[in-house]
Amino acid sequence: MKQIVAVLGHPIGHTMSPVMHNAAFEALGIDAEYLAFDVLPERLGEAIEGARALGFVGLNITIPHKVAALQYCEPDPLAASIGAVNTLVFGDEVKGYNTDATGAMEALRRAKVRVGGKEVLVMGAGGAARAIAHALVHEGARVVVANRTKQRAVELCEALGRATGTGFDELPALVQSCDVLINATSVGMRGESLVRGEWLHEGQVVFDIVYNPPETPLLKAARSAGAKTIDGVAMLVHQGAKAFELWFGVEPPVDVMERAVRRALAEG
Q1: In CATH, 3-97+234-267 is 3.20.10.10
Q2: What reaction gets catalysed by this protein (predicted)?
Q3: Between 157 and which of 21, 109, 163, 176 could a Cys-Cys bridge form, CB atoms 3.0 to 4.6 Å apart?
Q4: What residues act catalytically?
Q5: 128 annotated among ligand-binding-site residues
């Protein structure tokens, strides 16, 4: 019988996860299919239980459900520490994991960016931002988290213990002074940017976790300013590869997954 996995989010039309995982299934000869479902926040618990009842192998959880999904699973220590999950594995229990941290750090490593001792500004305080900030602190970065609602950033940083939380009103000075800028908000999907081009400069690293479109307004401005840029595809692929391993117990073909995503994005 075909094995099923899926991603739950709202909205979900932008996702490249089905393209990526289905390419991996085909390459490995696994009889499985990856689907995407638009789930309203108030129906998340029902959707998770429904997928489990239908015999799904597991789920990915994306915006805006990563924090809320914690209450519907038994998180592993990393996910519990981060305070967000993006991968569920069904069995006797619903196990929760966070592969965003792995994906983000692998994207930085691939770009030969070391964050230890560097000042890193993370924009956003949602599930992805929580995972990234947690990983950055673990790598020895000096982390500042800025969010539209300052209190959410402050609470996140208090939980981390070694980071500073602030509001978006501080962005001009923070962007100009940081070594690495990471956008962990979804604004790039809407063709917008929280950062003005004149705040950016040569020598910085600018990483936007948005992957659709692959060149967001932020990355375009960063490239014009002479900064090193990293798009969100590498993070998507590597967090997806880790989820794949959790579901199926095998290492997926990362190169196949990335080619499939970039091809689909190029074709629009």
Answers
A1: no
A2: shikimate + NADP(+) = 3-dehydroshikimate + NADPH + H(+)
A3: 163
A4: 66
A5: yes
